[in-house]
């Protein structure tokens, strides 16, 4: 089902909007996302489908920034779905929506290129818009329930010693703001923020910036956000 024509899509400035597509077998999920997106001018919902095949028929290079992909669209595993989607469209940012995630699955999906994780029984309206923009910007988004799952499964992993400035950067990262914005808030240079993020990767034993929040959540280093 096409929700907006291309003429409508490109009447808005591309740099001001995020083009979102939804693929989920449940009509209630698709309708719920459409309702959330209708409250903002910064996300354009280009379409919502119950299966991947019609989405691929619609998809063109650059036509979609972020794909919200449900775990019920086929019998294929989320790992296979993610791999297939990014093989067809490497620039696509994939956010996964599932009944639940396990810590091991989250880490594996992150390595495969998934950029966001949300659970279907969460109050998506509380964070969805900010999450979509964060993912488009290149951040990995972890929903509150997903972060809680990671923390509860951490099983008392050894804590790491972080400097006050590293902790400050980590907390700002949970707001999913850019390094430039963090630099402004901390009254420092962007290069200093990148250096602090590098030191966080070393301290947490992760390979990229996207994995910082996942590992920090497992270790209880980021404050759990209260849901509205």
Mind explaining what this structure looks like?
This protein folds into 2 domains: 6-151, Rossmann fold (3-Layer(aba) Sandwich), CATH 3.40.50; 164-218, Orthogonal Bundle (Arc Repressor Mutant, subunit A), CATH 1.10.10.10. The protein contains 11 helices and 6 strands. The chain has helices spanning 6-9, 27-37, 52-58, 78-88, 103-112, 128-137, 144-152, 164-173, 179-186, 190-204, 212-218; strands spanning 18-23, 43-49, 66-70, 93-98, 116-119, 141-142. Strand 5, helix 6 (128-137) and strand 6 (141-142) form a beta-alpha-beta unit. The two termini are 32 Å apart. Mean pLDDT is 83; it is low at 1-15.
Write the layout of secondary structure elements.
Blueprint: H1 6-9, E1 18-23, H2 27-37, E2 43-49, H3 52-58, E3 66-70, H4 78-88, E4 93-98, H5 103-112, E5 116-119, H6 128-137, E6 141-142, H7 144-152, H8 164-173, H9 179-186, H10 190-204, H11 212-218
Parallel strand pairs: 1-2, 1-3, 3-4, 4-5, 5-6
Helix pairs in contact: 4-5, 7-11, 8-10, 9-10
- In the CATH hierarchy, the architecture of the largest domain is 3-Layer(aba) Sandwich
State Rg: 18 Å
Q: CATH H-level name of the largest domain... which superfamily?
A: Response regulator
SS elements, strand count? 6
CATH C-level of the largest domain: Alpha Beta
Helix/strand/pairing category: alpha/beta
Let me know the largest β-sheet.
Answer: 6 strands, parallel
Q: Termini separation (Å)?
A: 32 Å
Oligomer state of the chains in this structure: single chain
Domain unit count: 2
């Amino acid at each position: 089902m096409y929700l907006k024509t291309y003429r409508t899509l490109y009447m808005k400035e591309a740099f001001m909007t995020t083009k979102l597509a939804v693929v989920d077998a449940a009509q209630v999920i698709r309708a719920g996302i459409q309702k959330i997106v209708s409250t903002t001018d910064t996300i354009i919902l280009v379409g919502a489908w119950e299966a991947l095949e019609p989405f691929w028929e619609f998809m063109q290079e650059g036509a979609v920034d972020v794909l919200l992909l449900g775990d019920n669209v086929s019998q294929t595993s989320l790992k296979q779905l993610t791999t297939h989607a990014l093989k067809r469209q490497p620039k696509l940012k994939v956010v996964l929506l599932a009944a639940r995630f396990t810590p091991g699955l989250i880490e594996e999906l992150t390595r495969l290129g998934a950029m966001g994780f949300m659970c279907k029984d969460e109050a998506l309206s509380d964070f969805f818009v900010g999450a979509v923009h964060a993912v488009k910007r290149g951040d990995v988004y972890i929903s509150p329930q997903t972060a809680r799952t990671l923390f509860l499964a951490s099983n008392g992993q050894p804590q790491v010693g972080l400097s006050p400035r590293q902790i400050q950067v980590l907390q700002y990262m949970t707001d999913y703001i850019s390094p430039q914005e963090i630099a402004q808030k901390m009254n420092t240079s962007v290069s200093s923020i990148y250096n602090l993020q590098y030191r966080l990767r070393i301290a947490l034993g992760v390979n990229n910036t996207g994995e910082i929040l996942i590992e920090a959540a497992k270790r209880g280093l980021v404050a759990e956000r209260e849901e509205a």
